[in-house]
From TrEMBL:
Source species taxonomy: Eukaryota, Sar, Alveolata, Perkinsozoa, Perkinsea
Keyword Coiled coil: yes
Protein name, entry field: Axonemal dynein heavy chain, putative
Gene3D superfamilies noted in UniProt: 1.10.287.2620, Dynein heavy chain, N-terminal domain 2
Tagged with keyword Cytoplasm: yes
Length: 251
């Protein structure tokens, strides 16, 4: 602005323009003290709780319910006398908002993550999990992210939601680990116990495998109907079912 005015003054024909520029400069200088307040209040993360914080700090009720809700009205409440307090609340609002959005983004990303269980596995009449690599990679990344969120100084408002999501991701991770472990065992044993000779030679082992095989087929049929990773892996009792099945096969 200063350079612009200086150049305008060099040309007498632009005196009127220069006068307007000078006026704008003066108005900007007058507005300058309000900038920290405006920046703080304009934070996209401002919620009712933040307006209450500001109201408590300045001793006057301010917020979106004011009529009119304008900068002039806020200034009439004396909010400009508390620039540091307003900036502090605005900064908190922004950081809380960042956590909130981060959580929403993570949840949203899982909406389109599915297992591939479309095709029957080798004429067995059942399915196996495919496409688990993407889920495993996302789980590793998101678990690290949500654990970092649990240590954030600004987590309090969303603490229950963050903890619940962290717990859900951990359960999904544990379930998927047990599931893939069982799948490896099932894929190895299925062709073996598909032989009548083996069944006759190893009746006890065959019975153990058959009990697991029945549960496997039921679970995979359900997964074929709903293959959304987070939903199926968070199913109550599924983790325990896989753990038991793995113990049966290992025993």
């Amino acid at each position: 602005m200063f350079k612009t005015i200086r150049k305008l003054k060099e040309d007498p024909k632009l005196d009127s323009v220069c006068a307007i520029a000078e006026q704008i400069k003066e108005e900007l200088e007058e507005f300058k003290p309000y900038v920290p307040v405006v920046v703080g209040l304009r934070n996209g993360g401002m919620r009712d709780r933040h307006w209450k914080m500001i109201s408590d700090k300045i001793g006057r009720t301010v917020g979106p319910t004011m009529r009119p809700f304008t900068l002039e009205a806020l200034l009439s409440k004396g909010i400009d006398r508390f620039p540091e307090e307003v900036a502090e609340v605005g900064d908190r609002a922004g950081k809380e908002w960042a956590l909130e959005r981060q959580l929403e983004v993570m949840k949203g990303e899982w909406e389109n993550v599915y297992f591939d269980v479309e095709d029957e596995y080798r004429s067995t009449g059942t399915y196996i999990l495919k496409g688990s690599e993407e889920a495993l990679n996302m789980l590793d990344e998101h678990i690290v992210t949500v654990q970092a969120m649990q240590f954030s100084l600004y987590k309090k408002v969303f603490e229950e939601e963050i903890d619940a999501w962290a717990e859900k991701l951990m359960r999904v991770s544990e379930t998927l680990d047990e599931w893939l472990k069982l799948q490896r065992a099932w894929m190895y044993l299925q062709p073996i116990f598909d032989s009548e000779d083996i069944v006759k030679q190893l009746p006890s082992e065959s019975n153990r495998f058959r009990s697991v095989d029945q549960k496997w087929r039921k679970t995979m049929a359900e997964t074929h109907e709903n293959s959304k990773v987070v939903e199926i892996c968070a199913t109550e009792g599924l983790l325990e079912k896989f753990k038991t099945a793995n113990e049966v096969l290992e025993g």
